Amino acid sequence: MCGIVGFVGHSPANQQIYDALTVLQHRGQDAAGIITYEDGELFLRKQIGLVRDVFQHRHMLALKGNIGIGHVRYPTAGCDTPSEAQPFYVNSPYGICLGHNGNLTNAAELAEVLTREDLRHLNTSSDSEVLLNVLASELARNGSPRGASAADIFEAVTRVYRRVRGGYAVVALIVGHGLLGFRDPHGIRPLVLGKRESPHGPEYMLASESVALDMLGFTRLRDVGPGEAVFIDEQGRFYSHQCVPVTRHTPCIFEFVYFARPDSIIDNISVHKARLRMGDLLAEKIRRVWPDHDIDVVIPIPDTSRTAAVQVAQILGVKYREGFVKNRYIGRTFIMPGQEQRAKSVRSKLNVIDLEFRGKNVLLIDDSIVRGTTSAQIIDLAREAGARRVYFASAAPPVRYPNVYGIDIPAASELVAAGRTEEEVARLIGADRLIYQDLEDLVRACLHHDSHIREFDTSCFSGEYVTGDVTPEYLDRLQQERSDQARGRRRRHASAVKALRAV
Q1: Which residues, listed in sequence order, are joined to residue 100 by a DSSP beta bridge?
Q2: Type and span of the H or E element at 169
Q3: pLDDT number for residue 477
Q4: HSE-up of residue 89 (Cα within 13 Å, Cβ side)
């Protein structure tokens, strides 16, 4: 998962993009980057690390211009090295910079065609660089190296849609032209458009989540539609085009479960309200399957599960208490690149308020259970704090299948619920009882009458991939390329290469 932002206006882009990235930091903590443009020159700063660490005062001063794009990343496709920090850039045609959130399911095939037929060189294994070069290749087909109209750009994006498969949201800076944004034909990954009036004219921003617009005073106009491209030229003129027809609009339901900030609105659905409804429906299930429960207290696992936990406690008629204190200077365990790092960070990330556990039957609420390592360690912490019994409830159904559209759930072998019953998972994580949300209830929680959404991508829960091109062979290859073991091998190889170069 990544966060992307694009800005074009009449004020310096550097601070606008930086501020937007700070509120999108939850979408990726591996690397950050900003590129801006002024008077025929591009200015780039990108590096491994958090936004606040990557950009110092001197870097911000060097990012000149009133148009630019930004990116925060954690690695899914590719690897977690500085060379794969975004935005990426190619100089032909025009000069194109690109930031990408998502994952291409046919990246390997595209890379081969780009190298063999389009005669383009790829510097990394990132599918984002593949997507950039596909876009550049299609823009080059328009002919003129000097300029392209909005219609030419939309024609090129239409051809990109014909070649590229998967889930993706894109912002691109086309040098001398303007800011381009587009979203995959199923609308799996989010992209929202905002506008702000300034004394010199309108300013526009594209971002992964509406919170980036809110904090900068932009009015949220709408979400970019699935299969739609929008383009804002350097003079602030706005254009949009439906490049491919929409057959199914299926945003990723995991955005509402875990990734998005609660104050975001995605496809006109409030993330906060969706999580409230998740809590309501989870509580109803607990009452239905366990009417004689002996729960003394409901305690959330910070932070995402708080909204649902409050509702569960209220409906069950038991106390709600905060039992964990989070160290906010530790990265989110789910998006850490290796299992060993995830396991090490849990105890340094959470501290226990013993008196909320001592002698009580505790129901812990989490947004989801993915690998199970974190859940098991948290249950251990609760027992060490004196809990008599520790029950566990997930606001999401069992995660049993890889996510191939840009979330780091790459291999079924790493998922604790894959091939296991609820009782088996409970034993593995050490819970006295485990209750999962039903998939139908999760979908119901995310639906809203003010939104046109009627279905979601639920592939990590259901195994049904909305793009229709995910084969068992692809999933096997994905496991080989993106498992923790594979990442470890790449990391060791990169270290060895670095050491040889230093000799």
Answers
A1: 170
A2: strand 166-174
A3: 85
A4: 19
Say what the pLDDT of residue 346 is: 76
Q: Is the pLDDT of residue 340 over 60?
A: no
3-state secondary structure of 163: helix
How many CB atoms sit inside 10 A of residue 18's CB?
21
Distances (CA, A) of 430 to 37, 75, 372, 415: 54, 30, 10, 16
Q: Coil, strand or helix: which one is 321?
A: coil
User: Sign of torsion, CA 12 203 158 177?
Assistant: negative
> DSSP labels for 28-92?
--SEEEEEEEETTEEEEEEEES-HHHH--HHHHHH--SSEEEEEEE--SSS-SSGGG-S-EEE-S
Cβ atoms of 3 and 259 closer than 8 Å: no
SS3 146: coil
* Coil, strand or helix at 373: helix
- Which member of 2, 97, 243, 252 is catalytic? 2
Question: Which tokens sit at 69?
Answer: 């794009």
Strand-pairing partners, residue 98, are 88, 172
Which residues neighbour 326 within 8 Å (Cβ) at sequence distance 6 or greater? 302, 303, 349, 350
Least confident range from 15-19, 365-369, 409-413, 482-486: namely: 482-486
DSSP 410-454: --GGG-TTTT--HHHHHHHHT-SEEEEPPHHHHHHHH--TTS---
What pTM does this model have? 0.91
User: What is the Cα 360 distance to its own chain's centre?
Assistant: 37
Q: Residues of the chain with pLDDT > 90: what percent?
A: 80
φ, ψ of residue 319 in degrees (nearest 5): -70, 145
Q: Strands 389-394 and 433-436, how do they pair?
A: parallel
Which tokens in the block code for residue 13? 């882009």
10 Å CB burial of residue 55 (0-12, 13-18, 19+) is buried
User: Is residue 460 annotated as part of the catalytic site, yes or no?
Assistant: no
Q: Tell the residue number behind the tokens 């057959």, with chain if given.
A: 247
101: nearest Cα among 123, 131, 63, 68? 131
Strand partners, 97: 89, 173
Indicate the range of 5-14, 350-359, 415-424, 474-483 predicted with least confidence: 474-483
Closest by CA to 454, choosing from 464, 462, 444, 463, is 444
Is 82 or 219 the better-scoring residue by pLDDT? 219
Closest Cα to residue 367, out of 457, 465, 461, 454?
Answer: 461
82 or 399: whose pLDDT is higher? 399
Cα(460)–Cα(396) distance, rounded to whole angstroms? 11
pLDDT exceeds 70 at position 491:
no
Q: Which residues are CB-neighbours of 176 under 8 A, at least 6 positions away? A: 40, 94, 95, 147, 234
- As a whole number, mean pLDDT of residues 410-421 equals 89
Under a CB-based contact definition with an 8 Å cutoff, are residues 445 and 439 in contact? no
